[in-house]
Request: fold
Amino acid sequence: VRGNNTTWKVVIAGLGWIAEMVHLPYLCSSLVVDLLGGYDVDETRTQQMVKRFGLRPFTAWDRLLEAGADVAVIATPPSTHGELVVSALNHHMHVICEKPLATSAKEARAIATASKGAKRHVFCCMTNRYRSDVQRMASAVREARIGEPRFMRASWLRARGVPMSLGALEKGVLWDLGIHLIDLAVWMTGWRNPISVTANQTRIAPSETIETANWYRRGAYVNPKSFGADTATIEVSFKNGAIASVEVSWAAHIPDDRTEILLLGTDAALRLSTVFGWSSSRDLVKGPPLAISSCQEDDWIPLVSKQNRDHLEYKAQLDSFFNSLGGRPNATDQMDELVEVIKIMEAGELNMRRLGD
Ligand SMILES: NC(=O)c1ccc[n+]([C@@H]2O[C@H](COP(=O)([O-])OP(=O)(O)OC[C@H]3O[C@@H](n4cnc5c(N)ncnc54)[C@H](O)[C@@H]3O)[C@@H](O)[C@H]2O)c1
Reply:
């Protein structure tokens, strides 16, 4: 526990797209952060970020661990998160980890145990929880405006927007976009104990005509032939009978990106209609993002009237983490939900019919 004028010594591992767009700009400008340095396995990439942000480079992961930092930011590809997070915790650091927290429930539980043992926070960047329209939706659920939530249908379709970073491609579209929607289902409704998970994936875009997302600005380019599916679905039923049904695509032939969440409760329904993520479609989306219908009125009633065009949620999530650090570390804060989400994603992956099988 520290006073108000504290600065936190921070290190970062993984200096790819999300580090360049979100973490490094934040860490370099925050008044509560003293950025000690960064590490990436790719030396060329490290040098680019040294040039751009005046970052001090670490030549090895061990050097980063021994730098005496309070907080480690992990922004590497998903398969590395489990090991890097546990090792940062074992070096007494709090951790900000990009999503997904881990790629298996076993890894996620190991993180929870290490966090408890080390008495250090682990924060996972489930960024969309920090959108103002999503927060309004969550508070409407908490206030029982729809009664008991029973069914969620959520879809995030990108208009020909394949991200060419390994961080996104490594685990595929379901882990890239789908996890955000599954996370919102678990976080907003309190649904727990999944009893069945079904997932499927397919490929829409032919390799020859694949188009990189217009917001993806990075030199490295992954061969589009190297990934399989660009579109996926996952359906979860929970012990209490509730159902979450999610569909995601990187490559839809639609005019603009679109995210829709419909949440049906025992008394009323909520509808979020907007654009998540980095997307130029945010400038185009029209109408109130969030509305409620209770059948007592003829139409949907707006709960939020203005579309969220900026990318404030990326900053808000990190503000939220650094604000909470001043308090008493409570390792289990977000942990049960995160483990539940990874459990669902892993079950979906195991169930999934892979392309070519
Ligand atoms: N919260 C969000 O909305 C959001 C958005 C985009 C990406 N992400 C997540 O961020 C993570 C990174 O994605 P990205 O798009 O920046 O990927 P990226 O491929 O652009 O960057 C990852 C970087 O990590 C480096 N790296 C790989 N293994 C490493 C290791 N062991 N130690 C140090 N560096 C290592 C790579 O060289 C690369 O530069 C992913 O987990 C992704 O899911 C989250």
